[in-house]
TrEMBL record:
Annotated region described as Disordered, given as residue ranges: 251-278
Signal sequence bounds: none
Species, as recorded: Triticum aestivum (Wheat)
TM region(s), chain numbering: none
Polar residues bias locations: 267-278
Acidic residues biased stretches: 253-264
Protein name: Uncharacterized protein
UniProt cross-references to InterPro entries, sorted A to Z: ClpP/crotonase-like_dom_sf (IPR029045), Enoyl-CoA_hydra/iso (IPR001753)
A Pfam family of this chain: ECH_1
Length: 278
């Protein structure tokens, strides 16, 4: 059984389904090669108007298999570098892309999700980065994708440094590209396809360039150098410093909000205790 299959649907929408035999959809050498080939077919098709990436059963994509195909750090690093080509192809596509995540997404499988323009997710799907817990490094494009797509600095920290997971339902409202969560897996796919039917893109090259400008640091991390605004900003230390300061500011605001909530809970508890005592 192959890793994925590509099917044309109505109105130029293509559906790429991850469907490996083990139901984990690990990104092995063979899987990455096949995935890249299918994305190149999408890029070169004159009929394509949009791409939905989804899974058939089980996990959407478990990323790297650290117990078998990526046991050593060298193996994992080589596979992660090859996944960068897949991320690059997604960022270069001249049409809108949607991840219809109907199962769990972990490790660089989560990066695969983030590389899409839009996201519909099964509300029970578990998303996370186990690398910190397993003592494995993350490729550069993972933190940059998190910065580009996740508005909450605190959640980025929990995902990357604590290996904390979140569900699709919890994700809604925190992810810049999350269009919704649903408890029905088929509805997740249907909504993703319907979204592409409603989107209109004029010049594909300009659309891809606009996407790259929004994901400047990620583009640099996967080797895209022609993004006019993106590549020079990503390489500019002042731009990196600016992004870091903005992240620190957001994190500080979130910490202040948490402290305020804790104080309110404490005051509420004290009020209830006084009422019970009287």
């Amino acid at each position: 059984m192959s890793f994925c299959r590509l099917e044309p649907r109505d109105n130029g929408v293509f559906v790429l389904t991850l469907a490996s035999a083990d139901e984990h959809n690990y990104l092995t050498d063979e899987a990455i090669t096949e995935l890249a080939e299918e994305l190149e077919k999408v890029r070169n098709s004159p009929e394509v108007k949009g791409l939905v990436t989804t899974c058939e059963v089980g996990t959407f994509c478990a990323g790297l298999d650290y117990d078998h195909h990526a046991e050593s750090e060298e193996q994992a690093e080589n596979l992660a570098k090859r996944v960068a080509k897949v991320i690059r192809l997604l960022l270069e596509l001249p049409v809108p892309t949607v991840a219809a995540v109907r199962g769990d997404a972990r490790s660089v499988g989560l990066a695969l999700v983030l590389a899409h323009d839009h996201l519909f997710v099964w509300d029970q799907a578990v998303l996370g980065l186990p690398e910190a817990q397993r003592g494995r490094p993350l490729p550069d494009y993972v933190p940059t994708l998190l910065r580009d797509k996740l508005s909450h600095a605190r959640l980025r920290k929990l995902l990357m440094l604590n290996s904390q997971t979140c569900t699709g339902k919890e994700l809604t409202g925190t992810w810049l590209s999350t269009d919704g969560a649903d408890g029905n897996r088929q509805v997740v796919l249907d909504k993703a396809i319907d979204l592409l039917h409603d989107l209109q893109v004029g010049d594909g090259a300009n659309f891809a360039k606009a996407r790259q400008m929004l994901c400047a640091e990620t583009c640099a991390a996967v080797g895209i150098t022609h993004a006019e605004l993106g590549s020079h900003k990503a390489a500019d230390p002042s731009w990196t410093l600016f992004r870091t300061k903005m992240d620190d500011l957001v994190l500080k605001e979130e910490e202040e909000e948490e402290e305020e909530e804790e104080e309110q809970e404490q005051r509420s508890y004290s009020t209830r205790s006084c009422s019970m005592g009287s």
